[in-house]
């Protein structure tokens, strides 16, 4: 019998690292002028219309088996991976679908792009939810739509954050796919075979947001925009790094070292961002990953305090120096001298 998960249960604590749902200023979005980059938008739209993955997300006979051979720990970690991934994809679907509806009259090209991206995200979320069904679970997506809290982001923040989340998604999926292609003995479930084509959807979505950013030079060529680009690069990288530090056992189960995996994904995403953003982070600075390691340890200590402490006052007092250290390290990372990226996309020191 299948158990339906209501992801926003009262006893589940949301944190800064939890997948979030977003809304934005739709009137500002509708007023954006994209005419300076129209050719690129038309090319991206043609890619979306081609729908290269129309026949890709179809379950085959390899799914038709019992997964009881997975030990309980690996099974639990994998289910958590599916749940978080499904929630993130469904969040993208809701945002893109609403943007498509709101922009249909004022910016039909952008609206259609959002509509076709929502198609992709719905396909991903549905495929993940069917995978959860193999473990007798399913996310209640209707409940999720109604009950989830929405975070407001101004359009430019949506552009920065979503561009990076799509590009980092590409590098996460393709890195896992290439690893398991070389080491199929670690492929604990057939969904990983779909990651090569899947990541191309993420890449195309990232290209769309790159086109949006390039059509709005005020989001890239000012001092304020450079500061925001640094902020979102660090936010996306640190969120992934801290999340994955808590899930090293999952990566071990598929034959990966979580830290080395994250380092590779961050390097590749930083290179991709350098082709669009006016700055990139200096990930070659030996202190960069040392500081992220310290942040991950401090965040892990905070989580352990939540689990172990029964006295709320003692827990808060014990957390205070950890919060101070974590914030201090994040500030050190933010103010680390960035790399300036010329318009050619070549990174220079």
What does this 3D model show about the protein?
Belongs to the AcsF family. It is found in: Plastid, Chloroplast. This protein has 12 helices and 6 strands. The chain is globular, with a radius of gyration of 21 Å. The strands form 3 sheets. A two-stranded parallel ribbon has the order 1-3. A two-stranded parallel ribbon has the order 2-4. The longest helix is centred in the first third of the chain and has 32 residues, at 72-103. Helix 4 runs antiparallel to helix 7 and helix 8 (223-245) packs antiparallel against helix 10 (258-273). The protein is mostly helical and 349 residues long.
Gist of the model:
The chain has 349 residues and is mainly alpha-helical. It is built from twelve helices and six strands.
**Biggest sheet, spatial arrangement of strands:** 1-3
* Share in helix: 55-70%
Tally of helical runs: 12
- What is the CA–CA distance across the termini? 58 Å
Q: What is the total tally of β strands?
A: 6
Q: Write down the oligomeric state.
A: single chain
Large-scale geometry: globular
The structural class is mainly alpha
Main β-sheet, in a few words? Answer: 2 strands, parallel
- Let me know the average pLDDT: 90
Low confidence ranges: 8-17, 344-349
User: Roughly how many Å is the radius of gyration?
Assistant: 21 Å
Strand and helix order? EEHHHHEHEHHHHHEHHE
Bin the strand percentage.
under 5%
């Amino acid at each position: 019998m299948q158990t339906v998960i209501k992801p926003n249960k009262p006893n589940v604590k949301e944190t800064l690292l939890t997948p979030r749902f977003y809304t934005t200023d739709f009137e500002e979005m509708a007023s954006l002028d994209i005419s300076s980059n129209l050719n690129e938008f038309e090319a991206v739209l043609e890619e979306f219309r081609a729908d290269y993955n129309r026949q890709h997300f179809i379950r085959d006979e390899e799914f038709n088996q019992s997964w009881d051979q997975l030990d309980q720990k690996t099974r639990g970690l994998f289910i958590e991976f599916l749940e978080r991934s499904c929630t993130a994809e469904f969040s993208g679907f809701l945002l893109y679908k609403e943007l498509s509806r709101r922009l249909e009259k004022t910016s039909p090209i952008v609206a259609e792009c959002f509509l076709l991206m929502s198609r992709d995200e719905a396909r991903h979320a549905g495929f993940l939810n069917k995978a959860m069904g193999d473990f007798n679970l399913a996310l209640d997506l209707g409940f999720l739509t109604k009950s989830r809290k929405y975070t407001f982001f101004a359009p430019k923040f949506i552009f920065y954050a979503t561009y990076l989340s799509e590009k980092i998604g590409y590098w996460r999926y393709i890195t896992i796919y290439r690893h398991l292609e070389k080491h199929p003995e670690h492929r604990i479930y057939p969904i990983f075979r779909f990651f090569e084509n899947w990541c191309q959807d993420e890449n195309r979505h990232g290209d769309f947001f790159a086109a949006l950013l390039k059509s709005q030079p005020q989001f890239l060529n000012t001092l304020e925009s450079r500061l925001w680009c640094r902020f979102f690069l660090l936010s996306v990288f640190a969120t992934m790094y801290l999340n994955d530090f808590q899930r090293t056992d999952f990566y071990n189960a598929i034959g990966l070292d979580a830290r080395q995996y994250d380092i590779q994904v961050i390097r590749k995403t930083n290179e991709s961002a350098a082709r669009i953003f006016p700055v990139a982070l200096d990930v070659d600075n030996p202190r960069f990953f040392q500081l992220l390691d310290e942040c991950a340890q401090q965040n892990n200590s905070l989580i352990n305090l939540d689990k172990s402490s029964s006295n709320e006052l003692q827990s808060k007092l014990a957390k205070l120096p950890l919060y101070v250290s974590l914030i201090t390290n994040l500030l050190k990372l933010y103010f680390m001298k960035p790399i300036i990226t010329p318009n050619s996309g070549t990174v220079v020191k």
